[in-house]
Protein backbone atom coordinates (compact mmCIF):
# COMPACT_ATOMS: atom_id res chain seq x y z
CA UNK A 1 0.00 0.00 0.00
CA UNK A 2 1.28 3.47 -0.86
CA UNK A 3 1.62 5.89 2.09
CA UNK A 4 -1.09 8.17 0.67
CA UNK A 5 -3.53 5.22 0.70
CA UNK A 6 -2.96 4.29 4.36
CA UNK A 7 -6.20 4.72 6.33
CA UNK A 8 -6.04 7.04 9.36
CA UNK A 9 -8.48 7.81 12.13
CA UNK A 10 -9.84 11.36 12.01
CA UNK A 11 -10.18 12.85 15.51
CA UNK A 12 -11.77 15.90 17.09
CA UNK A 13 -10.24 18.48 19.41
CA UNK A 14 -10.63 16.01 22.31
CA UNK A 15 -8.83 13.17 20.45
CA UNK A 16 -12.07 11.23 19.93
CA UNK A 17 -12.32 9.29 16.65
CA UNK A 18 -14.97 10.84 14.39
CA UNK A 19 -14.16 9.12 11.07
CA UNK A 20 -11.52 7.61 8.82
CA UNK A 21 -9.86 8.65 5.57
CA UNK A 22 -6.80 7.85 3.42
CA UNK A 23 -3.64 9.69 4.46
CA UNK A 24 -3.50 11.62 1.16
CA UNK A 25 -7.01 12.96 1.76
CA UNK A 26 -6.25 13.71 5.42
CA UNK A 27 -3.28 15.84 4.38
CA UNK A 28 -5.04 17.50 1.43
CA UNK A 29 -8.09 18.47 3.50
CA UNK A 30 -6.17 19.32 6.69
CA UNK A 31 -8.08 16.80 8.79
CA UNK A 32 -7.05 16.27 12.42
CA UNK A 33 -5.39 12.89 12.99
CA UNK A 34 -2.90 11.22 15.35
CA UNK A 35 0.90 10.98 15.39
CA UNK A 36 3.51 9.37 17.64
CA UNK A 37 6.86 11.07 18.34
CA UNK A 38 9.73 9.06 19.84
CA UNK A 39 12.89 10.66 21.21
CA UNK A 40 15.40 7.86 20.58
CA UNK A 41 18.54 7.92 22.74
CA UNK A 42 21.60 5.74 23.08
CA UNK A 43 22.97 4.66 26.51
CA UNK A 44 25.24 7.75 26.55
CA UNK A 45 22.11 9.93 26.42
CA UNK A 46 22.74 11.16 22.89
CA UNK A 47 19.68 11.81 20.72
CA UNK A 48 19.11 10.29 17.28
CA UNK A 49 18.81 13.29 14.94
CA UNK A 50 18.09 12.97 11.25
CA UNK A 51 17.25 14.83 8.07
CA UNK A 52 14.12 13.72 6.27
CA UNK A 53 14.39 12.82 2.60
CA UNK A 54 13.20 15.29 -0.04
CA UNK A 55 10.43 12.85 -1.01
CA UNK A 56 8.60 12.87 2.36
CA UNK A 57 4.93 13.98 2.18
CA UNK A 58 5.32 16.27 5.18
CA UNK A 59 8.28 18.58 5.93
CA UNK A 60 10.64 17.15 3.29
CA UNK A 61 14.35 17.84 3.74
CA UNK A 62 13.98 19.12 7.30
CA UNK A 63 15.81 17.94 10.40
CA UNK A 64 14.01 16.16 13.21
CA UNK A 65 14.99 14.97 16.69
CA UNK A 66 12.10 12.51 16.81
CA UNK A 67 11.32 9.35 14.90
CA UNK A 68 7.72 8.36 14.49
CA UNK A 69 4.77 9.06 12.30
CA UNK A 70 1.06 8.73 11.86
CA UNK A 71 -1.08 6.38 13.90
CA UNK A 72 -3.01 4.05 11.60
CA UNK A 73 -6.76 3.51 11.83
CA UNK A 74 -7.55 1.37 14.88
CA UNK A 75 -3.94 1.46 16.07
CA UNK A 76 -3.00 2.71 19.55
CA UNK A 77 -0.42 5.41 20.14
CA UNK A 78 1.78 2.82 21.91
CA UNK A 79 1.60 0.44 18.94
CA UNK A 80 2.40 3.21 16.47
CA UNK A 81 5.32 4.51 18.57
CA UNK A 82 7.04 1.12 18.59
CA UNK A 83 6.22 0.30 14.94
CA UNK A 84 7.33 3.68 13.61
CA UNK A 85 10.50 3.82 15.72
CA UNK A 86 11.58 0.35 14.60
CA UNK A 87 10.80 1.16 10.96
CA UNK A 88 12.61 4.51 10.87
CA UNK A 89 15.61 3.35 12.88
CA UNK A 90 15.82 0.07 10.98
CA UNK A 91 15.92 -2.07 14.11
CA UNK A 92 13.90 -4.89 15.62
CA UNK A 93 13.58 -5.76 19.28
CA UNK A 94 13.39 -2.13 20.41
CA UNK A 95 12.11 -1.72 23.98
CA UNK A 96 8.56 -0.34 24.17
CA UNK A 97 8.94 3.48 24.17
CA UNK A 98 7.87 5.18 27.40
CA UNK A 99 4.86 7.50 27.00
CA UNK A 100 5.52 10.98 28.35
CA UNK A 101 2.65 13.30 27.35
CA UNK A 102 0.23 14.27 24.58
CA UNK A 103 -0.55 17.59 23.00
CA UNK A 104 -2.58 18.98 20.13
CA UNK A 105 -0.28 20.39 17.47
CA UNK A 106 -2.18 23.04 15.51
CA UNK A 107 0.71 24.19 13.28
CA UNK A 108 0.27 27.21 11.08
CA UNK A 109 -3.28 26.29 10.13
CA UNK A 110 -2.43 25.50 6.49
CA UNK A 111 -2.06 21.75 7.06
CA UNK A 112 -4.53 21.02 9.84
CA UNK A 113 -3.44 19.69 13.20
CA UNK A 114 -2.69 16.41 14.86
CA UNK A 115 -2.80 14.92 18.29
CA UNK A 116 0.78 14.11 19.20
CA UNK A 117 1.83 11.46 21.71
CA UNK A 118 5.44 11.96 22.80
CA UNK A 119 7.60 9.04 23.91
CA UNK A 120 11.20 8.35 24.82
CA UNK A 121 13.27 5.19 24.36
CA UNK A 122 16.86 4.31 25.19
CA UNK A 123 18.42 1.46 23.28
CA UNK A 124 21.76 -0.08 22.34
CA UNK A 125 21.16 -1.56 18.88
CA UNK A 126 22.86 -0.74 15.58
CA UNK A 127 20.62 1.50 13.47
CA UNK A 128 19.94 1.05 9.77
CA UNK A 129 17.54 3.90 8.94
CA UNK A 130 15.22 3.58 5.97
CA UNK A 131 16.87 5.28 2.98
CA UNK A 132 13.45 6.38 1.68
CA UNK A 133 12.74 8.16 4.99
CA UNK A 134 16.11 9.46 6.21
CA UNK A 135 19.04 10.78 4.18
CA UNK A 136 21.40 11.76 7.05
CA UNK A 137 21.56 10.88 10.77
CA UNK A 138 23.76 11.00 13.85
CA UNK A 139 23.51 10.58 17.60
CA UNK A 140 24.32 13.94 19.18
CA UNK A 141 24.44 15.24 22.75
CA UNK A 142 21.76 17.56 24.09
CA UNK A 143 24.19 20.51 24.17
CA UNK A 144 24.97 20.09 20.48
CA UNK A 145 21.29 19.59 19.69
CA UNK A 146 20.45 22.83 21.49
CA UNK A 147 23.19 24.63 19.50
CA UNK A 148 21.76 23.33 16.21
CA UNK A 149 18.21 24.51 16.92
CA UNK A 150 19.00 27.95 15.51
CA UNK A 151 21.20 26.69 12.67
CA UNK A 152 19.26 23.89 10.95
CA UNK A 153 15.76 23.93 9.48
CA UNK A 154 13.67 21.67 11.73
CA UNK A 155 10.22 20.17 11.41
CA UNK A 156 7.89 22.58 13.20
CA UNK A 157 5.96 19.79 14.94
CA UNK A 158 9.24 18.26 16.14
CA UNK A 159 10.31 21.63 17.54
CA UNK A 160 6.96 22.00 19.32
CA UNK A 161 7.30 18.50 20.80
CA UNK A 162 10.94 19.13 21.79
CA UNK A 163 10.03 22.40 23.57
CA UNK A 164 7.41 20.52 25.57
CA UNK A 165 9.85 17.64 26.21
CA UNK A 166 12.40 20.08 27.66
CA UNK A 167 9.75 21.59 29.95
CA UNK A 168 8.51 18.11 30.92
CA UNK A 169 11.83 16.57 32.00
State the main characteristics.
single chain, 169 residues, alpha+beta, 4-stranded mixed beta sheet, 3-stranded antiparallel beta sheet, 4 helices, 9 strands
Beta strand %: 25-35%
Radius of gyration: 15 Å
The outline comes out as globular
Instruction: Catalogue the unreliable spans.
Output: none
Helix tally equals 4
Strand line-up in the sheet with most strands: 6-3-8-7
Kindly describe this structure.
This protein is of the alpha+beta class. The protein is built from 4 helices and 9 strands. It has helices at about 25-30, 75-90, 140-150, 155-169; strands at about 5-10, 15-20, 35-40, 45-50, 65, 65-70, 100-105, 115-120, 135-140. Strands 6-3-8-7 form a 4-stranded mixed beta sheet, with helices on both faces. Strands 5-4-9 form a 3-stranded antiparallel beta sheet. It has a two-stranded antiparallel sheet with strand order 1-2. The longest helix is centred in the middle third of the chain and has 13 residues, at about 75-90. The radius of gyration is 15 Å and the shape is globular. It starts with 6 loop residues before the first strand and ends with a helix. The model has no long low-confidence stretch (mean pLDDT about 95).
Amino acid sequence: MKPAEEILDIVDEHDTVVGQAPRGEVYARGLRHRCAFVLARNPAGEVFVHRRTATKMVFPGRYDMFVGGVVGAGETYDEAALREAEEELGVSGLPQPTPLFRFLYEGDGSRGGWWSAVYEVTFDLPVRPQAEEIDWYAFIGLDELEARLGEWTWTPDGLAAFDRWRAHR
